Structure prediction request, 225 residues.
Amino acid sequence: MAEPLLHTDDGHEDEARLWAELVATARRTVADGLVVGTSGNVSARIGDLVLVTPSGVPYDRLTPADITGVDLTGRQVLGTLVPTSELPMHLAVYRTTDARAVVHTHAVHATAVSTLVPELPPVHYMAGALGGPVRVAPYATYGTDELAGNMLRALAGRSGCLLQNHGTITYGATLDQAYDRTAQLEWMCRLWLTASSVPGLTPSLLTEAQLAQAGERLKGYGQRR
Prediction:
């Protein structure tokens, strides 16, 4: 097992900078109420190295010396803390997509929806930003290859999904993008739960074509750099 980061060359400076961003994102999931305690986890990829939050350590206690990293096979190559138990899910995403960051949470509204339906009803066009209607991956024990496989099937053509009786997982090109997709998914779940709770009324839903059109427009959203 490798020693904690102590070097100052450019490569290790990049790792240190990404680790700081990862820890900040993990702390944000707590501050925004998307996780409780040490539930949920965050990772980011740089080359063939995956930096990931360690198992069972409160995010406010993490320091630069706690950097934790594995290769794409799951072999630990940085740090002394044990990586998150959900490592199989994170690695499955990196092996099969172009993701550079993954955020997993136990967000309450999203988890509630995961117990009710096999797919989040398309109540808002932001589902288009995730690739279309958000699916629910069937339940499997946390930290298992079975759960990772269920997740990959639910993620096909999507950048986020719900995990039945468990939570959410999203990925993106950056930590900010992965986090924003998680926040949007939780918001859409809260929206559907709120709208569907009105007695005698049923929420109007968007069509597949409407979501696809929104998804195309969202690709050009924001400032060009």
Summary: The first strand starts at residue 41 and ends at 46. The first helix runs from residue 10 to 31. The helical segments are 10-31, 87-96, 108-114, 145-155, 175-196, 208-218.
